[in-house]
Design brief:
2 copies of one chain form a homodimer. With about 525 residues, chain A is an alpha/beta fold. Chain A contains 20 helices and 18 strands. The longest helix of chain A is centred in the first third of the chain and has 18 residues, at about 70-90. The radius of gyration of chain A is 24 Å and the shape is globular.
Chain lengths: ~525, ~525
Amino acid sequence: MNGAESLLATLVNAGVDVCFANPGTSEIHLVDALDRCPRMRAVPVLFEGVATGAADGYARMTGKPACTLFHLGPGLSNALANLHNACRAQVPMVNLVGDHATFHRPLDPPLASDIEAIALPFSRWQWSARRAETLGVDGARAVAAACTAPGRIATLIVPADAAWGEGGEIVAPESPPPPPAPKAHQIADVVRLLTNGARTAIVLGAHTTQGPSLVAAGRIAARTGAKLLAPFTFGRMERGAGRPVVERIAYVTEMAVAQLAEFRQMILVGAPAPVSFFGSPTRPSRVTPEDCNIVALASAQEDSAGALDALVAALDAQKVEPALQAYEPPRAPHGDMIMSAIPAAVSALLPENAIVVDESITSGRGLMAATQGAAAHDWLVNTGGSIGIGVPLAVGASLACPGRPVICFEGDGSFMYTLQGLWTAAHENLPITTVIFANRTYAILKLELAAAANNPGPRAMKALDLAPPAIDFVALSKSLGVAATRATTAEEFALALRRGIESNAPNVIEVPL
Amino acid sequence: MNGAESLLATLVNAGVDVCFANPGTSEIHLVDALDRCPRMRAVPVLFEGVATGAADGYARMTGKPACTLFHLGPGLSNALANLHNACRAQVPMVNLVGDHATFHRPLDPPLASDIEAIALPFSRWQWSARRAETLGVDGARAVAAACTAPGRIATLIVPADAAWGEGGEIVAPESPPPPPAPKAHQIADVVRLLTNGARTAIVLGAHTTQGPSLVAAGRIAARTGAKLLAPFTFGRMERGAGRPVVERIAYVTEMAVAQLAEFRQMILVGAPAPVSFFGSPTRPSRVTPEDCNIVALASAQEDSAGALDALVAALDAQKVEPALQAYEPPRAPHGDMIMSAIPAAVSALLPENAIVVDESITSGRGLMAATQGAAAHDWLVNTGGSIGIGVPLAVGASLACPGRPVICFEGDGSFMYTLQGLWTAAHENLPITTVIFANRTYAILKLELAAAANNPGPRAMKALDLAPPAIDFVALSKSLGVAATRATTAEEFALALRRGIESNAPNVIEVPL
């Protein structure tokens, strides 16, 4: 058994059985090994940023890592931007990066680069394998590192001769270290705050906006009157009818400040203290009131889920019923403009158990409010602000959850970063409906420009345009094998969305604005 | 004057007046400053890898740096793969990367990352600006660093408050340090080798396959009988009728070994010793004969052009006429298969002074041989092996050389990495004809897989396919505003190429294989 075979077998034994891959010559023995490891599903991507975004989406929906396969330093480089987002989403992921054979590397061939240095900024664990005999051990350790709470990026660099060398051994899964439990005084401190009568917010991070943690948070809120919040950049939120309501902290600084003004106390559950996305000469960096007492129930590295359970127990709230969102029939669209009709249409047509991926930036701002009382669903957003994650996230989430419809909202600027993901959606025939809001501009930047400059000049404005030429997203999508249509009225949009979801296949709806 | 304004003015005073830009909120004051710096041409790109590839092409054709403008660490991350290629091309480039305001950065907002660490692997100079007052000095230093021989990647990180702060000062250009001249004994050593009667190759790197250096090399070859070679990964070669002939070292290891077998001596002019692209269990890593004496006339950091001139003088060859390639009418295509007809068609239709960008991997292997005696032209290739540079290189070369036709040969796999570059070509209406060889597979990897595995399995082969779905490159190009056609016969190809060049506008020819 060669090193490549031992590595793949070790990974699938540890539950890592999906590989988003864009390999090259130095990874060819790992590709060859796929035929001896049928349990590893290889999903091809045409650009590496699709792979890391997809692995992120997969991990958000399953809680477990997928792996990726990249060609040397440049392949890893192309994957980094969505690794930044994945770091911020605190998901587990195992990146396999091929390297030159150890004897060839010192010759500095054209594709040589310092892969360890490239991996460093966005990996929380990394290791350069040495030889075939220990590649299985390296793989088992990479998975354990990735699964260490709350979820980490692990990068394993695999020299070609370690992959092709004989003597590989399949290694049993390694258990990740359990996350440290928050200390008793942390729980006690938070109980005191929650019972002192002051207006309190609980900010849910580290995967606590889903599953039993969300229910526990709902009990705490019902018992104490605290309000549940999530960072603007949450990873995954279970929401809609039957779920406890968690309010997202606003992106716009002034809105976040207004939203948080009432709170004298804030409890952080594996979440960072809310700050403005960007610094500004005129707006505050911190969005919480100056006199707000901010206390951590658990850090991101601690056991947030366990901390919430302990808090429920300390509050004697095990039997308290959380306040659950009622199903709310969608409101009729107001006006005949398509943009005001879309949120209501989405809310009406959102199927039970759908997965929504939202990277629609300015155009989609009404979507979450409109779907608050829709059928139960999951909502995924961009966690790190690096645009170009929407389509890849949708691909990964769809592969993670066969049979569940996925609806992906994209701004046209964001979409263009990783449009190659549509091809993978077509290749795998994934039921993803992608809505592209085509305003032909980086609209959010024009807002920022207007805020920064008194009277922005024409050259500055032009630098933020996505036209001319105006991209034809329908033709673009079809060229990549994805069915597509254009919706210019509210009726056309509702029809296209219904048909798109019912098609159970990848499809795109362009909404020209 | 704010920092942003002083920086742009300092750059244009130093000759850096093209900016390939994909900015965000933290760079909005640099965007705003464009309207007070009309000499800076901003060229928008929809993905950062297009910017660095274009800046590379611009520098290869002009010898001077363009600048880029990126949004924080993720923006720079997307730019890295083509920075790898640019490092290997030894071109000058100035990257401007925005960062959070210095007072905001410690709050670790979602888009924060370690930009210095991200820049490190592919920058030869980097600096984090501190404040507006010194941003001009920083900019002048960045340009001087970029222009230090043979050409370097310089990355300047610009915090938002340094850009918006008042007190900026325009700074005069700084002279880069002159490259060290090779020592006299290096010249004397090489003269001895070139006159000892042994079969000798001269490998031309560091921009010596163009201009006066190429003529000097031609004189040396004519005087001594040495053969002129270029690395497989040369940056730019002037070739065709009227130019000294430089033979490219082959990619395939066995072919390179055969090509170099005759040489007992090899003189390196700012070039690395030839090695195989990848290590292999069965093929050699070094492609030169074991008894070949390899000597450097100049290192890449030394004055290669000056060294060639000194060598010409030492050989008393100032008046020797280099052997120049005669114009050769293109041979008639052999057979009726389109792939055998394309090289002859290209040779026949290549306009005088054209720029050819070649990233056609397996499909384009006959192109250089067929165009050896075509009208004089420049040839640019991928220098670092990171695919996805062809279209961006063409954009940069075209902007650098208004009026010159550009023909870009792409493999479909490579093209898909940075297809967003077509949009910029359309936006700027650049006369680039892009030929996409659509074999729907990473063909080179299937060859490597066949070499590595006895009998590759179906899952491995499938992981290297670009279908299904088969991408429609004609529709894809049109959707991005670029005229496109499909050529399935030799006649169709010749007609499309002629019309494409004559159109004086961006156009694509898909060649399905």
